[in-house]
Amino acid sequence: MVLRRVLFRRGDNMAAGNEILTMRRITKNFLGVRALNNVDFTLRANEIHALMGENGAGKSTLIKVLTGAEEFESGEIRIAGINQPVINHSPQEAQINGISTVYQEVNLCPNLSVAENFFIGRELKKFGVIDWKTMNKKAKKAFDDLSINIDVTLTLDNYSVAIQQMVAIARAVDISSKVLILDEPTSSLDDSEVEKLFSLMRKLRDRGIGIIFVTHFLEQVYAVCDRITVLRNGELVGEYAVENLPRLQLVARMMGKEFDDLAAVKRERSEGAVSDPVTVIEAKGLGCTGKIKSFDLSISKGDVIGLSGLLGSGRSELARAMYGADKADSGELEMNSKKLNIRSPLDAMQAGMAFLPENRKEEGIIADLSVRENIILALQAQRGIFRLISKKDQEEFTDKYIDILKIKTSDRETPVKNLSGGNQQKVILARWLLTNPDFLILDEPTRGIDVGTKTEIQRLVVSLAEQGKAVMFISSEIEEMLRTCSRMVVMRDCSKVGELSGDEITQDNIMKAIAGGGSV
Amino acid sequence: MKKFNSIIRRITHIPLFLPLLCLFLVLIVNLIQTPSFFKITIQNGVFYGYIIDIINRSSGLIILAVGMTLVAASSAGADISVGAVSALCGAVCVASLGTGDVYQMPYIVSVLLAILIGVICGIINGFLVSYMKVQPMVATLILFTAGRGIAQLVTGSFILYVKPKQFGYLGAFLPKVPIPTPCFVAAVVVIITWLVLKKTSLGMYIQAVGINSKASRLVGLNSKMIIFLTYIFCGVCAAVAGLISVSRTMSIDANNVGLFVELDAILAVAIGGNSLSGGKFSLMGSVIGAITIQALTTTLYAMHVSADQLPLYKAIVVIIIVALQSPVVKKWYRNLRSKVSTVEPVKEVG
Description:
The complex is a heterodimer of chains A (520) and B (350).
Chain A: H1 2-10, E1 19-30, E2 33-44, E3 47-52, H2 59-67, E4 74-79, H3 91-96, E5 99-103, H4 114-119, E6 125-126, E7 129-130, H5 132-145, H6 161-175, E8 179-183, H7 191-206, E9 210-214, H8 218-224, E10 227-232, E11 235-241, H9 247-255, H10 261-264, E12 279-288, E13 292-300, E14 304-308, H11 315-323, E15 330-335, E16 338-340, H12 345-351, E17 353-356, H13 360-364, H14 371-383, H15 391-404, H16 421-433, E18 439-443, H17 451-466, E19 470-474, H18 478-484, E20 487-492, E21 495-501, H19 507-515
Helix pairs in contact in A: 6-7, 14-15, 14-16
Chain B: H1 2-12, H2 17-33, E1 41-43, E2 46-48, H3 50-75, H4 82-97, H5 107-131, H6 136-155, E3 160-161, H7 181-199, H8 202-211, H9 213-218, H10 223-249, E4 251-252, H11 261-271, H12 283-302, H13 310-324, H14 327-341
Antiparallel strand pairs in B: 1-2, 3-4
């Protein structure tokens, strides 16, 4: 009732009527950049609402504003049942107001039991001591209600990330249950786990909870969501019912242009100069005990070689062994017909390799350093301690790559941690391009990155190959590799099991090779 | 009002504003309490006064703070053995010179020997931290406890005195120079360090390693070596501070040289606005931090606080200084400022 009155007073569109959250004309400036500009967002009970947009579109900022992690300059947030506009000053306050968030990285304590985690910070007490029995019983019941089959007395680290996430969700919903925000929850889950998460989400929706779902995976939006709100460059593009917005349209809205680019990435160069391949790098029996079994691999100028295989099949390990990130203990490596003795990444860099690691945050960016420092770091390391690149050159290089790669940053001295994920990835690419390598290893360069930047990076890969560089491209998305790679290496159980080239590279063939040939 | 705000903003955006403010506040108190505080006179041909005393006494601490800054930046930890290492290096110096009327060996050799011991201590600490991956606090705890023990072995558990009066030059005054020698030594250490960080890429490397050692390794930095080097450097700084310390008293008392000085050094780094969890650092911040600590001590003495009660008052002021610079207070201050300068666009909920 209260809600209805509030809405009436506001005189807004009343069609749906069961809004539990309305954000109106939210504006937020961030370091001089307008991160959100008059953005409206509406969430209804009983719906799963996808919040879509490229990196830097303002999704995270909107969520942060909503949960009180960031302040906003103007606008209004209303929550059903609260009679006046709400400003959350902290995630805790948001939780009291009925808004809970579960992130990709689960913020629970792995060494406590499931029940403890469920009740952490609000333990049930009896005569001043913790009442384990009731706690376990209540937790058990809460999980049963959500059809999560779990032993609540075991410690959390017994369970997979997927289950841990569900525990986090169950806990969030148990504390306050109007609005649930899921921020990229599926990034580290496999397909069956994703399906389980979806059924949990549907169950919660049917209980009347409104769910905001932030993801980069388009298929998942169509699998589970009811509505989509699209943001672009900090502005609202529109709100759509899922059935009214076909996938292509969605992508077009997100990117702000009509969508025919993605298909066009496919290289035409294969007809070109394949006549006399020049080997850039060749591995003979290279291996690293416990990580990757011995393999042979030779990559020529202009090759884009894809590594496909399931997670944990040794894709990254193969790349790391070549780069010296993990020290190879058997076999040998030749680059430009010279034998290499790689003891550390620096040796590999000096030989002309570049390596963009899988995990951007942990192994890629140096968060507190500026964009400039992040970009010149690899070149500086190559030159050594005493040959400092002059300030002028540093700035020149940085500006050049900010321009070439269209890195969105307010300033070259901005700490790289303030950039969006896609732009951070571009900074790392710039870092390596500056060293002018002959052989680039790109391990999941497009993970967690919006569609537009993804396409840009794919194009870049192809154009690098055209310039005569050898590229190794690792991705979990087969489609992406089909589009960019000229050869494909298939990995299974920490060993290289096959190689495909030319017309053999089809999704079918790759799948078959991954699954293990004759067995099916 | 507007102009005032913009001035305030310009001032608060000066790098090292907060550390400087703290030092300034400490000195202001003196202006009120002890008007003679800022008086500098010449007695016996050398400068004399509280200010000179502060600069003189803080020299050792500055040197230690410089080493500590780099250790904290690269390894997100502190070297708590610096006091003990100072004592050990001082002991080696004194013991090698002997207690006779003339030196047993050339002074310079003895100094180099002491510095070598500092290097060795740094190697031990650095090896444990970077290559054995022992937590800095634990790794340096070893020499923290063992250092003084070894120093006692070197001196035979005696307090040794050095007789030739040239020995006191380092800790007091060179003939015909009115400024205390430790000031020059500290200045040289700071300038050399600053130049090395500025003219080579080492400064950036240390920050990169401190922020993200995994990523640093993958861009070709030898993270372990860089951490290792900072500990060796810290060992050298400890040795230099130890040499100054024994020269001041013309003697070595292994139980008392550099006692608790590691805590002051860590504090200097923190007061200088540096994070003890690695990464970005400001060398000058630590220098100002070190001077602030000494200024505080001298101030309290000038106010006739007895030596026994000194730590209490010192602690209270330090709490205030550190709290002033904490992220929470900074955020609160920022909010306050934005509230003053702009009209609040969003109404608060009661």
